[in-house]
Amino acid sequence: MSLCVQLSLQGVAVLVIGGGRIAYRKCCQLEQEGAELVVIAKQFDACFQGAAYPCITDSYRPQQLQGKMLVLACCDDLITNRQICADAKQAGIFAMSVQQNCGASMHALAVEEAAEYVLAAGTKGASPLLARQMLKEMNAVVKKNYASRIAMLRKLRQYILQHIQKEERPQLLSRLVRLSQRDLYCIEQALQGKGLQLVCFHGVKEDVSQELENFCAAIEHRKTNLVAAAAFLFEGVSDTSAQPVAQWLQIVKSLHIPVTLVPMLFQNGRYYSRLLSIKSENVRVKPLMFQERSEVWQCLQEVRRESGCANLLVIYHSCVDGAFSELLQGLMKEDVHFHAVHEKQTMDCILPWREESVAILPMYMLRGSHYRKDSDGGSALVQSLQKQNCSVHVLQASCIELRAFQEFIIQKME
Q: Among 271, 265, 262, 230, which residue's Cα sits nearest to residue 365?
C-alpha cells in the first residue's frame, strides 16, 4: 500500500545523484517547483552547462545526505541506486529512483494540473510514456465532464461551511456530488435569490438528459427570474437524466431554499397525490396543467397545423377510464380530424381515415420506452393507415419538445 500525496517543494533541500540526461530532466522539474537543488555526479552531461544550481563533481557518499529532505537516485548503476535508497531510509530521508526495485520510498507520477483539479497516473516504472498517454486521456474526460462541476462545488462548499450546521454537512455534500452541472447551477442561482422550479416527471430509464436540459433552458429564457431543474417521481428508474424528487427535497431543505414543484403529468393519479402530500411552507405544488379541454385542444390543433397533415392521431398512456382519457374521447366526438387511442389498444383500434394525410403524435412527456415503441415508423398502427392509402407522418418529438406544448407549459408556470 502507498499514499498518493501532492508535495510543495518550494524551498525544500533536494539532492540529485547522477549527471545524465534523465537526471537533468528531473532537475528541471524540481527547479520549476522551487526546490533548493544540489547535484552530485562523477561526470556531467553537456546539458548541465549553465545550470543555476550547484553541480558538484564527486562520487556518492552517505554523508552527502545530511540536511536534505529528498534524494533522487539517478545513476546508471542499479547497485549504487539501491545503496542511495537504503542510506536515505536509514537517515529518515525520502528517496526516489529512476530504476525499479531499488527500495525507493517515493515514486513520481505523471501529473496534469489545471485550475480546478490535479490528475496523476503511473505505471510503477513499467512505461513512463504510457503513463503520459493515460494521463492525457484522463484529462480529456475530466475537463469535459467534471471541471465545471468542481468549480461550482467549490463555491457551494464554501457556502455550506459558513451557513450549515456541522452535523448536516457530510450528507449534504455527498448529495451535491451526485448532481449534474445543470443541477448545481440551479442550486447556485437559487441561493442568489432566483426562484427554483422543480419540473417533476414520472421518469424514464432512457438517458433524456439533453432533452431535459433544453426544456429547462427554454423555461429560463422566458422566465428570467426562475431557474428550472428536472426530477423524477418514480425512484425505480436510473438517475442518469434526473435525480429523484425526494433527493432534491432533502437538498433544498438542508439549504433552506424555497421550491415550487411543477407536475409534468397528464393524469390526477397517485404521483400527483404524492406531490400534494409533500406540500409545505417552503414547498409549493402547482396544479395539474392538462385538465381543461379547451387548453388541451388548442395545443393539439397547433400540433396538427404545424405537421401539415389534415388529421391528427394521438397515442396516449394513462388510465384507460381516467379523466384524461375521457377528455380525449370527448375531443374525438367534436372533430372528425382528431382521433386518440390508448397505447395498449393500438393493435385493435379501427381508424376512420381513407386516402388522407395523418400525423401521429406519441403523446408522452419524455422519449422513454413507451414513446420509442409508439414513434416507430414501422408499427402496426402505421401499417394499418398505409393499407388505407393514408400518407403518415410520425412526429419525432416528445411533448416538452413540441413548440405548442412547451409554450403552454411555460405559460402555466406564471
A: 265
Q: Classify residue 139 as exposed, middle or buried by CB count within 10 Å of its CB (0-12, 13-18, 19+).
A: middle
Q: How far apart are CA 350 and CA 337, in angstroms?
A: 14
CA separation for the pair 275, 273 (Å, rounded)? 5
**Angstrom distances, CA of residue 4 to CA of 111, 120, 414:** 12, 9, 52
What torsion do the CA atoms of 121, 123, 124, 126 make, to the nearest 10 degrees? -150
Condensed to tens digits (0 to 9), the pLDDT of residues 173-230 reads 999 999 999 999 999 999 999 999 999 999 898 999 999 999 999 999 999 999 999 9
Tell me 36's DSSP state: E
pTM of the model: 0.80
Backbone angles phi, psi at 54, to 5 degrees: -65, 130
DSSP, collapsed to helix, strand or coil, labels residue 209 as: helix
- State which H helix or E strand residue 262 sits in: strand 259-263
pLDDT of residue 296 exceeding 60: yes
